[in-house]
Design brief:
Largest sheet: 4 strands, mixed
Protein name: HECT domain-containing protein
Distance between the termini: 38 Å
Order of helices and strands: HHHHHHEHHEEEH
Number of domains: 2
CATH class of the largest domain: Alpha Beta
InterPro entries: HECT_dom (IPR000569), Hect_E3_ubiquitin_ligase (IPR035983)
Strand content: 5-15%
Radius of gyration: 26 Å
Strand order of the largest sheet: 1-2-4-3
CATH topology of the largest domain: Hect, E3 ligase catalytic fold
Helix content: 40-55%
Keywords: Transferase, Ubl conjugation pathway
Pfam families: HECT
Number of strands: 4
CATH architecture of the largest domain: 2-Layer Sandwich
GO molecular function: ubiquitin-protein transferase activity
Structural class: alpha/beta
Number of helices: 9
């Protein structure tokens, strides 16, 4: 590898060793990938995107550089689209009540020390620990179920089924138990 990098030489002093290491690191991280960087720049140059990027780097920063941000209850609320029964049905009234429980639950998880985090809720529903920079496909959904006391999730379709329970306390207890006891793909 040192010969390929052009750094192979006889070492006589400690400085020679440092020069070899510096030369190899420069080759490994810069010169070895030069062709890839050039092709990337050429691709960005189509439609003058590279020129716009050079002229206005701060405008493109959120699109070109990923930065993980702290997950908020409002973010999760906006991420999950509720699938509800038709307006006026008895199911719709129960679903609206449980949807209120869901929103209160997200706020409680963020504020209280229940042993869960919003990342745990997201992981349970989607299999992801954080929201990706690109759009999450398919869009996460919240549906409702009467046949189980605990929440269920299908991470392939990004769907979480919330249990229809009579009180917030029962809902919170069931959600905490269901999420804490889910396998989570073996990730802790």
């Amino acid at each position: 590898m040192l010969q390929t990098a052009g750094c192979y030489r006889c070492l006589r002093t400690l400085e020679d060793k440092e020069q070899v290491v510096d030369g190899y690191i420069q080759w490994y991280f810069t010169y070895r990938n030069h062709v890839s960087f050039q092709r990337f720049k050429d691709g960005l140059a189509t439609l003058n995107f590279f020129n716009a990027l050079e002229q206005h780097p701060s405008l493109f920063l959120p699109y070109m550089v990923y930065s993980a941000e702290d997950l908020k209850a409002e973010t999760l609320e906006a991420l999950f689209r509720p699938q509800m029964s038709p307006t006026g049905s008895s199911n719709r009234q129960e679903e609206e009540r449980v949807l209120g429980y869901w929103l209160d639950y997200l706020i409680a998880v963020k504020e209280e020390g229940s042993g869960l985090s919003l990342q745990d809720v997201l992981m349970f529903a989607t299999g992801l620990k954080e929201i990706p920079a690109a759009k999450l496909i398919p869009q996460p959904q919240v549906t409702f179920q009467k046949h189980s006391r605990f929440p269920e999730a299908n991470v392939c379709s990004n769907t979480m089924k919330l249990p229809i329970l009579p009180s917030y306390e029962m809902f919170e207890e069931a959600m905490n138990y269901g999420i804490k006891n889910s396998p989570g793909f073996g990730l802790l």
